[in-house]
Amino acid sequence: MTTPPMVSIRDFRLVRQTRGGTLLVLDDVSFDVADREFVAIVGPSGCGKTTLLKSIDGLIPRTSGEIAVNGTVVDRPGPDRGFVFQMDSLFPWRTVLANIRLGLEARSGDRATKNRTARDLAALVGLQGFEDHYPHQLSGGMRQRVNVARALAVDPQVLLMDEPFSSLDAQTREVLQEELLRIWSERSKTVIFVTHQIDEAAYLADRVIVLSARPGRVRASIPIELPRPRTLELKRTPEFIAIVDRIWQEIELNDSGRAARDADETQEARVNHA
């Protein structure tokens, strides 16, 4: 018996209205994400990676097609999905504990239980002892740890992450990559992770989805057949470098195709103007 996917995207299409008319952002996007799978999405700037992630969360409505999470069609945000934004988006007047507890406050249950859950999550992300600190007292990496803990607090089935480490320095970024893999392993969540960093995608994911230049379409689905658990030393192996090169080749084909398309559009505009 085949296990149904945790996330299913079928013939997804998204059109936006702009001052200049309509803009086709994503077109004919179809792929599945298995339960507890870690999938990274990469592609050229402007190809719709973040837009697709927000559509999975229910923040941006589709034009056509379908997105389903655990068999339920997505038409709005829900507690089965947790979203980690690019910026930490913490409330500055709340402590670490209060920020983590935020998603629990709308749920039934006593305050002591919610505080205990928040403290457990603070420990999970390596912030034990910082529960009473405010965001301005934390480093960028620590704030993102709070952000991840807050998303996990509602116990979502799917964790959606939009370039969560992009604003961090290289050393902190690598530390948090390792921490994320540890948390993912312990919590057994399905993760969809958007990034511009190809080595980050290859290091974290079970599979990398490459989107084409706008309109974003699935150009490739590349399995990352590297053993787990993974350590940072893996990034220096020939096997890892070969996978990164393969993903880069897909990105470069995207860029060359986009350049050709832009040249054609420019030439067409000149002809029409003449």
Strand and helix layout:
Elements (H helix, E strand, L loop, with lengths): L6 E12 L2 E13 L4 E5 L6 H9 L6 E6 L2 E2 L7 E4 L11 H6 L9 H14 L15 H14 L4 E5 L7 H18 L2 E5 L3 H7 L2 E5 L6 E6 L14 H36 L1
Parallel strand pairs: 3-8, 3-9, 6-7, 7-8
Antiparallel strand pairs: 1-2, 1-4, 4-5, 9-10
Question: Any guess at the CATH architecture of the domain at 7-77 and 189-273?
Answer: 3-Layer(aba) Sandwich
What name goes with the CATH superfamily of the domain at 7-77 and 189-273?
A: P-loop containing nucleotide triphosphate hydrolases
CATH class of the domain at 7-77 and 189-273: Alpha Beta
User: What's the story with the biggest beta sheet?
Assistant: 6 strands, mixed
In percent, how much strand structure appears in the residues?
A: 15-25%
CA-based shape: globular
Rg, alpha carbons? 20 Å
End-to-end Cα distance, whole Å, is 62 Å
Give the averaged pLDDT, no decimals: 89
Strand order of the largest sheet: 6-7-8-3-9-10
CATH topology of the domain at 7-77 and 189-273: Rossmann fold
Number of helices: 7
The helical percent reads 25-40%
- How many DSSP E strands? 10
Note the run of SSEs as H and E. EEEHEEEHHHEHEHEEH
Low-confidence stretches: 259-274
User: Which class do the helix and strand fractions yield?
Assistant: alpha/beta
